[in-house]
Specification:
The chain is of the alpha+beta class. The protein contains one helix and three strands. It is flat, with a radius of gyration of 14 Å.
Amino acid sequence: MKFFQKKQNILPLPEGFTERDIRTESSICTGETTIGFYSREDKKLHYAELVRSAEDIQAFYSKYGKTAP
C-alpha cells in the first residue's frame, strides 16, 4: 500500500490520432523497439519513444490515460 504516490499527469491524445493508432515497431538492423502513434498518411510513427521492457509499453499507454491491450 502506497501512501505517497506521485501524481501522474495524463496527456490528451495528440490531434488527429486515436487509441487505435498506437503501434510498436522494431528495427530490422538494431532490433530496437519503439512505440508511438502511427500516421497512415506519412507511414511514420509520431511521438515515438524507445521501449526497453513491457513496463515501458504500459507507461506509454498510462501516460495518455489508456490501458494496454
